[in-house]
Amino acid sequence: MEQDWKNALAALRGNLETPADETEKKIDEQPPQTMTQKTPLTIVTDRKGRNGKTATIIEGFTIDQDRVDEIARKIKQKLGVGGSVRDGEILIQGDHKEDVKKFLNSLNFKVK
User: What is the 3-state secondary structure (H, E, C) of the chain?
Assistant: First the structure.
């Protein structure tokens, strides 16, 4: 519905190009680039210092922090869990080692 009024406005102006908002959305929907990640990632589960609660930790990122944040957000959304990013590591609440490994492999990351 939002698209309809943008097309109508563009037609009235004689400008049939796509609005800038659409172009930005298409760029944001693309998967993160992994070209600069040379080394494989390590996935470990840990319970120390967490009051007995299990956490999945993804270590070894060599890409920029913005991409790590984006990957963490997508993992948390896909698994429906909480987590955080600190010092280039992604911490996911719970034992999700296999699910995280499958997801990272789908993004063309090498995982140990």
Answer: CHHHHHHHHHHHHCCCCCCHHHHHHHHHHCCCCCCCCCCCEEEEEECCCCCCCCEEEEECCCCCHHHHHHHHHHHHHHHCCCEEEECCEEEEECCCHHHHHHHHHHCCCCEC
Predicted confidence (pLDDT) per residue in 46-96, tens digit: 988 888 899 999 999 988 899 999 999 999 999 999 999 998 899 999 999
Tell me what pLDDT residue 17 has.
Answer: 52
What is the rounded CA–CA span in Å between residue 45 and residue 57? 6
Q: Does the predicted TM-score (pTM) go above 0.90?
A: no
CA–CA distance, 88 with 55 (Å, rounded to integer):
16
83 pairs with which residues across the strands? 92
- In angstroms, rounded to a whole number, what is the distance separating the alpha carbons of residues 76 and 55? 13
